[in-house]
């Protein structure tokens, strides 16, 4: 299991480090006064990337990759916790892929505090469930 986790960690570092950094920049710059060409260029780039990574298509690809690298973790999550909502599934997928709270918030158009609340409630739902793999699922949150 550890080598699979290392595989997904490598994927996150390779593919998503940039978007996490861009999301952090966007988050910080969104409150800054002034209007510069650089700021506008960063905003445009970040908005495009966020839109791409907010899509159902991207999430499905991400879920497939997580399943491939982590022994069907998303499929097992859904099978063992069918009572959870589609929104819970999305939060789980982004969290399991290693996205930051800020990134998840931007992808889902939520405040950071709302993402923290959703993850906490999801963790509590998993902890109180009878899911065989609940410890593994919790480790991603």
Describe it.
With 141 residues, this protein is mainly alpha-helical. It has one domain. It has 8 helices and no strands. The longest helix has 28 residues, at 2-29. One of its GO terms (molecular function) is DNA binding. InterPro entries: Sig_transdc_resp-reg_C-effctor (IPR016032).
Task: Give a brief description.
GO terms for molecular function: DNA binding. It is built from eight helices and no strands.
The average pLDDT value, as a whole number, equals: 86
Q: How would you characterize the largest beta sheet? A: none
Which structural class should the secondary elements be placed in? mainly alpha
Uncertain segments of ≥5 residues (pLDDT<50)? none
Q: Could you tell me the number of beta strands?
A: 0
Beta-strand percent range: under 5%
GO molecular function: DNA binding
InterPro entries: Sig_transdc_resp-reg_C-effctor
Features:
141 residues; mainly alpha; Sig_transdc_resp-reg_C-effctor; DNA binding
Helices and strands in order:
Blueprint lengths: L1 H28 L7 H17 L2 H14 L3 H8 L5 H11 L4 H8 L3 H16 L6 H6 L2
Helix pairs in contact: 1-2, 3-5, 6-7
């Amino acid at each position: 299991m550890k080598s699979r986790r290392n595989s997904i960690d490598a994927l996150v570092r390779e593919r998503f480090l940039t978007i996490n950094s861009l999301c952090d920049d966007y988050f910080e710059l969104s409150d800054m006064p002034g209007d510069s060409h650089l700021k506008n260029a960063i905003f445009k780039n970040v908005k495009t990337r966020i839109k791409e990574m907010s899509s159902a298509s991207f999430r499905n690809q991400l879920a497939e990759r997580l399943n491939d690298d982590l022994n069907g973790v998303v499929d097992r999550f859904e099978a063992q916790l069918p009572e959870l909502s589609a929104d819970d599934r999305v939060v789980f997928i982004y969290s399991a892929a290693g996205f930051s709270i800020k990134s998840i918030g931007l992808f889902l158009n939520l405040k950071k505090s709302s993402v923290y609340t959703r993850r906490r409630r999801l963790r509590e739902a998993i902890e109180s469930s009878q899911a065989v793999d609940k410890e593994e699922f919790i480790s991603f949150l």
